[in-house]
Amino acid sequence: MAVTVLIVEDEEKIGRFLELELMHEGYEVMKAANGREGLEKAQSGKADLVVLDVMLPELNGFEVLRRLRKNSDIPVIMLTARDEVMDKVAGLDGGADDYMTKPFAIEELLARIRLVLKKRSSAAGTAGRDKNQLGVGRLHMDVQRYEVSYDGKQVELTHREFELLRVLLENKNIVISRDTLLEKVCGYDYMGETNIIDVYVRYLRSKLDDVYQVKIIQTVRGVGYCIKDEN
Ligand code: CA
């Protein structure tokens, strides 16, 4: 699907030039010639990125950005006049993703647009990954529903077994000490047996490893436990 860039620029020549260049690169282009119209179009949800001039009639670029950021995190690249250093600072503080100083080489703007879009999409990928879904191999944990399954079959765990497994899955490939596990699973003021973690690991193994003939929780001698991603 084509990426739509909104150009907010009152100077018609520059706007037209940017439009042609962006279209040539395969972007869909929307244009606005003043701050108010720019804000409306940026909030419309139809654009994927905004190229926003600072000096604009009606609302200047900073004001547009300030209002836009109240309810939108659409990527914004600001265009500032040469040597307006304060503008750059204000733009970045105000939530701009990047800025360009006029006059600029179009190739540089195109490169920055690509970079900002790439950063955003990789950030969205991380944020979009559901933290409530954990697992390794055929083992799956739905934290929100408080369910664990292996190969699609439900595994019944006690609260502490579940918590222990959750901590290990959340820290996949990291060795976690017994003390840390004790604190996370039983609370740091736990005063009972210190080998309780070993006991829970044994319970978990009896419900998973022994049943499914696998080795999910690794013991790291003298240190603690770890769940490793399957190779
Ligand atoms: Ca302008």
Short characterization:
The chain has 231 residues and is an alpha/beta fold.
Describe this entry's structure for a reader.
This protein is an alpha/beta fold and 231 residues long. It has 2 domains: 4-127, Rossmann fold, CATH 3.40.50; 130-227, Arc Repressor Mutant, subunit A, CATH 1.10.10. The chain is built from 9 helices and 12 strands. It has helices spanning 12-24, 35-43, 61-68, 85-93, 106-128, 159-170, 178-186, 196-207, 209-212, and strands spanning 4-8, 28-32, 49-53, 76-80, 98-101, 133-136, 139-142, 147-150, 153-155, 176-177, 217-220, 224-227. Helix 6 (159-170) crosses helix 7 (178-186) and helix 6 (159-170) crosses helix 8 (196-207). The mean pLDDT is 87. Bound molecules: calcium ion.
